[in-house]
Amino acid sequence: MDLAAFERISVTFEQFHAHFAPAFGRKDWRERSRDYLRGLLVQAQERGNAENLAEAVEGASARVLQRFLTEAKWEDRAVIERLQQYLGSRLSHPEAVWAVDESSFPKQGKKSVGVARQYCGALGKVANCQVGVFLAHVGPRGRALVDQRLFLHEEWTTDEDRCAAAKVPKTAQEYRTKWELALDLLRQAQEWGHLTADWVTGDDA
Prior knowledge:
The chain contains eight helices and five strands, in the order H-H-H-H-H-E-E-E-E-H-H-H-E. It has two domains: 3-70, no CATH class; 93-202, no CATH class. A hairpin with a 4-residue loop joins strand 2 and strand 3. The chain is α+β, with helices and mostly antiparallel strands and 205 residues long. The model has no long low-confidence stretch (mean pLDDT 91). It is globular.
């Protein structure tokens, strides 16, 4: 890649980040969000932890990036709405459809929010894992994941102390099935109105 091409990418990246930056509030958190996103895009390691990302981003330490993840106060709903707004003019098409599905993430330990022994599609068996329900928008102009919800197993929603220790918000402690979470995603996208589709597809679950 020559210098001119690199500079064009740099300008495009700054424009992309500027669309989302206001959702992160304070100036220093907006700057850290830029560093974190840049690290995700350029780091070569499979694991996107703070240490690996810091190695790929000049001027951002692992401690600073970790603080952005654990201490910065910003609403993920605001970021996701901006994502759907950004994609609206790029992906909208009369033949587009919504696709809902779950995905699982094998996880050791018991303290990560939502982790439980449950069916893990990634492993094809019951195992310790987290499960998320995801919404994608798919059409002739492209496809993208546009929203998500973490599934909380009943062993979490019936254990207030465990939820409190993991800082699960009270509003998220009510048990909801995966199909109920999928409906939440669809209704939220419909309310925002940035992306539209006449059909919804998913598997038997």
